[in-house]
Specification:
Layout: H1 21-28, H2 41-50, H3 53-57, E1 67-75, E2 78-85, H4 86-91, E3 95-96, E4 98-100, E5 110-117, E6 120-126, E7 132-138, E8 143-146, E9 160-161, E10 167-173, E11 178-188, E12 194-203, E13 208-212, E14 226-228, E15 231-235, E16 241-245, E17 251-254, E18 265-271, E19 274-281, E20 285-291, E21 300-307, E22 322-323, E23 328-333, E24 336-341, E25 346-349, E26 352-353, E27 358-365
Parallel strand pairs: 3-26
Antiparallel strand pairs: 1-2, 1-27, 2-4, 5-6, 6-7, 7-8, 9-11, 10-11, 11-12, 12-13, 14-15, 15-16, 16-17, 18-19, 19-20, 20-21, 22-23, 23-24, 24-25
Amino acid sequence: MESKEDEAIPQHPKRSKPTDPLHFESISSRNTVLPMPSLPAELITEILLRLPVKSLLKFSYKDYSHHGLMFKVASTAILGFKVCSLRALLYHPLTEAFDLDYPGKNLGDHPRLVGSINGLICLAIRLLQGFDDLYLWNPSIRKYKKLPSYTLNLNRRNWEVRLSDFNFGFAFDEFQDDYKVVGIFPVYTYTDSPCRVEVKIYSLRSNSWRRIGDFQGRELLDHSAKFVNGKLHWLDRGRNIISIDLADEKWAEVEQPSCFKGCGWLKLGVFGSDLSVFCNYPWTHVDVWVMKDNRIKESWTKMFTINFPEVPMRYIFCPPILMSNEGEILLQFGPLFMKYNRKDDSIRYLDVTNFAPCLEAEIYVKSLVCPFYSGDPEFNNGG
């Protein structure tokens, strides 16, 4: 059954207040504990299905008990996914990772994580024979939806597409209560520059793609966008940050401090609920910047600096995964996970069993959100 987030839960009728003060005395003087009533499991499920997603998820953020960390791994030239408990990774001395099957899995395919919102994972799987297959997947309830194919306008013989330049972003449109995927598809002639860029938006509510325009035509570095405050953000080859607003589908460039141009490697991330930038100065240190207000250039703030550890292999830092309640920063450093303590500037590598070198990681929240709406013919599909 699909959750109806806009339905209100029936309220219990108000009870009349007792007017006799002795009534309270008689209750408080008892040395007994009244048993809590138990509800049938099916009634609890119905209540949870009627609650808005935000109400369900906001109770699980403090202790991370309902969070998982999914990461893409490469093992003996085979790509796949593993998952572990985020709480265990933060607070236990040893964490176990589990192999995770994913929809559309086939030998030789190249899957990648596009994003995660409210428990839904967006996957792009590059097929051997051609374009990407896209899936919306909730691993908690083992439900997935394969998105309909996108088609590109290639009506001239000298036009070509380069699959490696396809970019996607996963977003939630609060105004329309709709999950959306934005695809950016550069179309080239036989020169090195794209002659045009097609942009398409998929809507889960309508289960269809439509084309939009007004893209600046830049080549992008990030294959997956970062979703912050209703906007998807990419980094282009000129190291500019561009964004599209899901509300009006308008493109804009995010102003950034001039010091970003001086670092060796830029990476976009999400830190808390803000857009973040990782400025890597190779083999020395990395500066972590956060934009507190994505409309104001002056809101960029340098949060902290992490010195590179002495390791035999030269890795780079990826954007921080999160900051724990104790202020420690969970990071990906090359293929490894580590925690950085800002108080004493210390770094501790995390011990994970059944581990393989990590290529990319994404946090997801366990939820009951379905990857389809009612009436969808794939309602009973399972992952």
